[in-house]
């Protein structure tokens, strides 16, 4: 009997393999689920073959992302059958946004799935697993009244240290903007901000675990609002000023922002805070006012361009990044050209662009004049070649400059380390006398397809 309860690899602990799809918030949620499972004796493995529990942390944003989940579940069903024949436990869990949107459907379509937990209920995962072990199939997707963060174990310094010198920290979740293409208001719920004290505590813990750079996360991160110690309502700008006071926390970033929530205090933070990196991900989605209106973005292309001018006037070295959708319903050639014009005006350092994907339940799905797939694809290709050109030009403009680099991990060759520039570029450097976690000045010497090359220098010029 002992053979049936003890994994075949001969260790007492159970192993969990977590596969994360989608955005950075899912990456963060996966770390928190891993911490919660660790309390139950689960050790995380990078090998699916040796896992006793496979957890898919899923993304629902586009049709393709959601489809991937079902094909992966098909493979897991077969793996589970094989494991069960050997008399070994093998559980399948689905978390994230597909779980939230289609929990019951997942259970119906894939009987091998044991538990489903949503983005707001994953603190209940350990309990759901023990109920599943007792024979239940558990779906936990009701929006919990309790705050999951209050119920999750705090990440200890050793686990943080094992994850590296940069970390994500969710400060805000959900969305009240209701862009007509987007499922997020339905999967992640309405905008909720974490309280200030919780965020400061987590940031300090990360620093105690060796983290030097924190990226604040939220679907609408710049809509973060909470009561400050002065009794006033604080916004993201105030939060950044406060976090910049934490000794040892050297770099701050935040993502993703909505143009309508870029307030004066946040722009001031970009001007003042040396620790706030000069990089801003600010999606516009389309450059056509007609399409922006149909998307319910509640700003024009000109509002967006003027906002960037204001930010650049206080922080001239800021690098811009954005998200774009081609082929939203009703998009004409002229509308698409307006998007290309915005891209030419802004000159992006990085960007993400997608073909419109019709999502059931969103207003866009019911709009007339859906654009043919090949037209969406053609526009996407033109847009992406312009964006790639701009990214290459931006990288090229860094050659010869001395920049600060946060050393993150070993490089491909002995003696080489890979670090991150203030503009989120990955940079290879031959490093002597320095270690991971150090922030050092380097001179950029060249560019490669996915990263830059640099030499160490003694001082920032
Ligand atoms: N189709 C295509 N892209 C989408 N995005 C969100 N919803 C859709 C959709 N239905 C893109 C937007 C958003 C990013 C996270 O994903 O550009 O900013
Ligand atoms: Fe995917 Fe959006 Fe959910 Fe992130 S929030 S996991 S991108 S659907």
TrEMBL record:
PROSITE patterns: MTTASE_N, MTTASE_RADICAL, RADICAL_SAM, TRAM
Superkingdom to which the source organism belongs: Bacteria
EC class (word): transferase
Keyword Oxidoreductase appears in the UniProt entry: no
Gene Ontology CC terms, in alphabetical order: cytosol
Residue numbers binding [4Fe-4S] cluster 2: 175, 179, 182
Binding site for [4Fe-4S] cluster 1: 23, 59, 97
Subunit: Monomer.
Protein's name according to its UniProt entry: tRNA-2-methylthio-N(6)-dimethylallyladenosine synthase
Organism: Allorhizobium borbori
Gene: miaB
């Amino acid at each position: 009997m002992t053979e049936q309860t003890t994994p075949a690899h001969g260790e007492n602990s159970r192993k969990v393999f977590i596969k994360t799809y989608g955005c950075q918030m899912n990456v963060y949620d996966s770390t928190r689920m891993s911490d919660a499972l660790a309390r139950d004796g689960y050790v995380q493995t990078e090998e699916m073959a040796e896992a006793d529990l496979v957890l898919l942390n899923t993304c629902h944003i586009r049709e393709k992302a959601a489809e991937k989940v079902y094909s992966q579940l098909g493979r897991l069903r077969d793996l589970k059958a094989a494991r069960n024949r050997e008399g070994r436990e093998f559980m399948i869990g689905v978390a994230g946004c597909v779980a939230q949107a289609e929990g019951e459907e997942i259970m119906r379509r894939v009987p091998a799935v044991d538990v489903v937990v949503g983005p707001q209920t994953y603190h209940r995962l350990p309990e759901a697993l023990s109920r599943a072990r007792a024979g239940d199939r558990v779906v936990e997707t009701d929006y919990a009244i309790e705050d999951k963060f209050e119920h999750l174990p705090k990440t200890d310094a050793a686990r943080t240290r094992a994850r590296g010198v940069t970390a994500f920290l969710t400060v805000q979740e959900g969305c009240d903007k209701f862009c007509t293409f987007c499922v997020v208001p339905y999967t992640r719920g309405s905008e909720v901000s974490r309280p200030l004290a919780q965020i400061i505590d987590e940031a300090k813990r990360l620093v105690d675990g060796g983290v030097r750079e924190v990226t604040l996360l939220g679907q609408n991160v710049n809509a973060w609002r909470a009561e400050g110690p002065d009794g006033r309502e604080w916004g993201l700008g105030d939060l950044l000023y406060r976090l910049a006071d934490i000794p040892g926390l050297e770099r701050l970033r935040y993502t993703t922002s909505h143009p309508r929530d870029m307030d004066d205090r946040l722009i001031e933070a970009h001007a003042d805070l040396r620790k706030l990196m000069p990089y801003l991900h600010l999606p516009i989605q389309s450059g056509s006012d007609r399409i922006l209106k149909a998307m319910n973005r509640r700003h024009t292309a000109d509002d967006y361009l003027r906002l960037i001018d204001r930010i650049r006037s206080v922080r001239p070295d800021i690098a811009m990044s954005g998200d774009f959708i081609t082929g939203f319903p009703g998009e004409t050639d002229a509308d698409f050209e307006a998007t290309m014009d915005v891209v030419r005006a802004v000159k992006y350092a990085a960007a993400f662009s997608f073909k419109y994907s019709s999502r059931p339940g969103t207003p866009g799905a019911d709009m007339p004049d859906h654009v043919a797939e090949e037209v969406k694809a053609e526009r996407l290709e033109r847009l992406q070649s312009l964006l790639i050109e701009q990214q290459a030009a931006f990288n090229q403009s860094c050659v010869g400059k001395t920049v600060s680099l946060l050393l993150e991990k070993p490089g491909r060759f002995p003696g080489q380390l890979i670090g991150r520039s203030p503009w989120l570029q990955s940079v290879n450097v031959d490093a002597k006398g320095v270690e991971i976690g150090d922030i050092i000045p380097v001179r950029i010497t060249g560019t490669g397809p996915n990263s830059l090359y640099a030499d160490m220098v003694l001082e920032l010029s």
